[in-house]
């Protein structure tokens, strides 16, 4: 399967707007992972760097925007940065979804979920 088509399929599957009501956090996390994986695998230089790091045994969430070095301190700091960035993105998504008032400001997927729940 082509990287781009696999990315599109997984992005549609795990997009937070189409997640089941109780699994928004899980879907958001997976959506971010899918997006970062696509950024890494679609860029040849980033893919080479990812393959090299995986061969060295670095099994952390790979961030395509930053290079991981081998030192344990740097790896822990980068893992902490990744976690804090993900948490801030998640809180931003929650804030935006809570600020939507009424069906006219809801996404199509949210309106479909609401209609499905009303039935």
UniProtKB/TrEMBL annotation:
Pfam families: DnaJ
Region Disordered, annotated ranges: 79-119
GO cellular component terms, A-Z: chloroplast
Superkingdom as given in the UniProt entry: Eukaryota
Xref: CDD domains: DnaJ
InterPro entries in UniProt: DnaJ_C/III_chloroplastic (IPR053232), DnaJ_domain (IPR001623), DnaJ_domain_CS (IPR018253), J_dom_sf (IPR036869)
Domain annotation J: ranges: 1-54
Protein name: J domain-containing protein
Species of provenance: Trifolium subterraneum
Source lineage: Eukaryota, Viridiplantae, Streptophyta, Embryophyta, Tracheophyta
